[in-house]
Amino acid sequence: MATTKKNTAPLPFAEQVEAKEAEILASIPNKRAEAEELAERAEQAADDVQDAKSAFESVKARLSRGDDSVSVEKYVHAEAAAERLKLLAPGLSAKAKHARETLPNVSKELATLVADAVRDVLPGVLIIPTFVKPDHPEGTDGLPVAFVVSKSESRTAAGQIKGEVEVIYYRSDLFAPLDPRKVDEAFILRGWTSRAPYASHMNRGIQRVDTLRIADVRAHGSAPVIPGKIETKLIERLGRSVAYEFINFAPVTSSMDSTMQALDGGKGVRGKGLVAEVAQARFKEQARDAEGVRRVVAEIGVRWETTRLGAAPFQGTAYAEALRAVESSFDGRLVTGVGVVEKVEQYGPDVSHSVMQTFGLRFTLASREPRGVSEEQSKGRPTGRLCSVDGCTRPSEARRLCGRHYQRWRRTGGTTLRVGQEVREELDPCAQCGSEIVPTSKRQAPRYCSAACYNRSAYLRRRTRMTDLRRWFVGQA
């Protein structure tokens, strides 16, 4: 009797991945407890080293004063204890560090964001974000499937999610391979940054496997998580960025200088025959919505004028186009410590000047508070273990210091930042990577911490302009 072969449905890849994730999540508490126990033992050993050393010095001092009551056994025991702890403390510290670093990443927030960008490149393909490397899928019936694996993940002070992801794309010859350039363009359109993706390809029978490794990804969602309250200096920094972009998009003529530099006091920018300064920087926080998103409405008023005699007037169509370019440049941008720009609109600032002209932009920015933080706590008094530096409200990460003060302590040996003879608590962040910029006499108004960040920002601006140009050509076709 002939038997009919039943058609088997494709394997539920999402359920397989969820099962592996649940297995790893079940083992995390024990591994985290072991890492914390090793860290406590390392801290205790570091304290015991000083006690053992002091005890041995005391024994030697007694012998040097002629105290013959100190026996050989006591001297040898004190010396051996000091030497043992001297060797044990670094070993325990290295062991605790290794246990902490080898804890598996169990967050897939970055993978979820990158998966949305990959969907723009692979429309109609099943894309599964995860933090575990999946097994080779079987029974796909020739249909493609992609996995976005989050290898590492951390959160920056600006609200970005930083880490490394790997995109694994299983397909047949009927489907085009994954193009890393299109993925990079999808990142640029979202205002994200990353290193150049590394692509590799391999064959498994009739199936093709495209792997894309993307390191140093800095991404953000529509409402990133930003701890702490919104400060006025952050809105003033946004105002300086508006003044910079206004001059940056101004048309350059042969009689104008294309270089730009900051004004005295850092409240404006001079360049291209123009000077622009922040005249108004204020904000108002709105109540959280039902989804827990907080919004901030910031109003930036800018005064500007021409500085070159005989220069062509900057007005009319050129002026309107420059303002529109400034608005579009901030759409979707992440403002450090505030949120992502949802909407930009012009308004009339209530500032006036006898000579200078004015314009105003109103920004609506969205962000979220960390989980477990109430609306009352978000208004200036965050709870939990905070940084031990006076006035710092960031959460403690290592040695009772926040991440920024800990890195400063590692570099300089202290938490006080000195720039020449000036003592500062905060420095302006790099416009590309968000790290602190230490100004030098050679750069009056640095916007980037290094030449690499400057080159990367210039590259992204060129790519964005080329993308806009291609969109315009497509629209005209």
How would you sum up this structure in a few lines?
This protein has helices spanning 13-64, 72-101, 109-121, 180-189, 232-248, 317-330, 403-412, 451-476, and strands at residues 126-130, 145-155, 161-171, 198-204, 207-219, 260-262, 268-271, 274-285, 293-306, 334-335, 339-347, 357-368, 417-419, 422-424. It has 477 residues and is of the alpha+beta class. Helix 1 (13-64) runs antiparallel to helix 2 (72-101).
Task: Tell me about this structure.
There is one protein chain. Helix content is about 35%, strand content about 25%. It has about 475 residues and is an alpha+beta fold. It has three domains: about 15-100, no CATH class; about 110-220, STM4215-like, CATH 3.30.2000.30; about 220-385. Helix 5 crosses helix 6 (about 315-330). The longest helix is centred in the first third of the chain and has 52 residues, at about 15-65. It is flat, with a radius of gyration of 29 Å.
